[in-house]
């Protein structure tokens, strides 16, 4: 009965086509069209066939005689498209080749096709007639995509070439244009073979490495991997053992040269589809032990920023030669999201970023540097990296609390640069459970618009289980019709400082402090703060700043300035140079006026981070002694 029904549907569609004056469907594509436009024509023909049973012809026929006609109109703008029924012809117009391809896939959705990361869903019932269309599409974010995370068997650790190609093809159908990957160089999960680390002297002309260190992705024979233990596939239950030919199952390649050749093919296919690519490691760069030993044997200090920059140059040159990428992103450390960071840790990250930028400059900037990570930046100021990076570098981060926190509000404090927000489409402690977070994906996407973000990406491991979440995030990157009229759509204001200390971290110690009757005050200091904003009654006050240098033992290591109510009171203070280590040093400033209920003290870093032990505010409020 089913076969007869489908045959009847094909007959009716052919009859309809004949009534419109043509015996077959034609997809018109310009003879000199770009590859993405030619692909769009083939895809439109394929989905027309799957939905109607009639086999269209792709030709350079006149547009007015075609069932579907593809064309370019740069006035639409990059990635944009327009779908329009014009009599018996459907016109798919793109602002660029990518826009035509997106328009083609959007038209397929109008035919009833649904796209997901794991594949297509085609309705069983055939169409009796083509739908009328009238739609324009413009992305809300210029960068839209996924960040499939390595380090678990559920994710891309096990992907081969065909798996990557399948995911890339689905990204284009979802109108996404980005895929980013993360690599652990060493530690409990690493070394992973995604990114090779070493100097240019260990590379050949093709970008293959002559010296490497052990690396691997997740596989069934691997022990001591977070959340998993080694297990033979023949011991799998519920019939799963029959899916494997041998007891060890894992990725096809795990060595650096094999993975490099794999990514060369994958990234080339991505560029063919208009998909940007990105790989990266955490900052500061972790040099594997074998690399450190090799550098030491060559008389080099692995801790020297110049040596680190040389290693970055080798890392970058290999990528640019073997498997070109569009971006290399440096991830802020994971510890920063759970336990905060010390000033010296941020200083190490800043030094590492400078080393990476210098290496890219020497290579002629074959790709762009970006930042990403577990947090946008250090705890004293999440937007602090904005002052360190060139404006061409995107800044991004995943949402905190494995996605249960909202988008990072400090995105609103960044301007003049790309900003990538990365919601969690699933969290890693729950990879064995369903995680249907469609509503959360929509909320994060709407919030990203308000924060002025230019990129919307999603972190995940699984593919088919993530079908609803990926679809929700992909569509939310283009339109958000579910938002109520009352939802605030105006851009968010920059995050305002709260009253109290403006950032920084606290350190306590027990060393004795000289030149004071209250040593306990100087045995706790705040590092790396930008100042204080204090709520006090209007009046006139004396402000005493209390300093101590508990860490450095030579001059020139910490130098900073200070202002009170916008007036500079200290130009360049070097506490050690003035009184030595662990000596109290106070400065008092009289007759400080407060007329708006706010007393502001600002610190300016010259060398390293400002450091203060305490402050004292005393004086008369306006209620007793009125300000003139």
Low-confidence spans: pLDDT under 50, at least 5 residues?
Answer: 1-23, 624-628
Radius of gyration: 30 Å
Summed over residues and divided by their number, the pLDDT gives a mean of 90
The total beta strand count reads 27
Give the structural class.
alpha/beta
Shape from CA axes? globular
Record keyword descriptors for this entry:
628 residues, disordered N terminus, eight-stranded parallel sheet, single chain, 13 helices
Write the layout of secondary structure elements.
Elements: H1 2-19, E1 26-28, H2 35-52, E2 57-59, E3 68-72, E4 81-86, E5 89-94, H3 97-110, E6 114-116, E7 119-121, E8 134-137, E9 143-148, H4 161-173, E10 178-182, H5 256-272, E11 276-282, H6 289-297, H7 305-322, E12 327-332, H8 335-338, H9 343-362, E13 368-373, E14 395-398, E15 419-422, H10 438-450, E16 455-460, H11 467-476, E17 500-502, E18 505-508, H12 519-522, E19 524-527, E20 531-535, E21 539-547, E22 559-564, E23 567-573, H13 575-579, E24 585-594, E25 598-607, E26 611-612, E27 614-621
Parallel strand pairs: 1-2, 1-3, 3-5, 9-10, 9-16, 10-11, 11-12, 12-13, 14-15, 15-16
Antiparallel strand pairs: 4-5, 4-8, 6-7, 17-20, 18-19, 19-26, 20-25, 21-24, 21-27, 22-23, 22-25
Helix pairs in contact: 2-3, 4-5, 7-9, 10-11
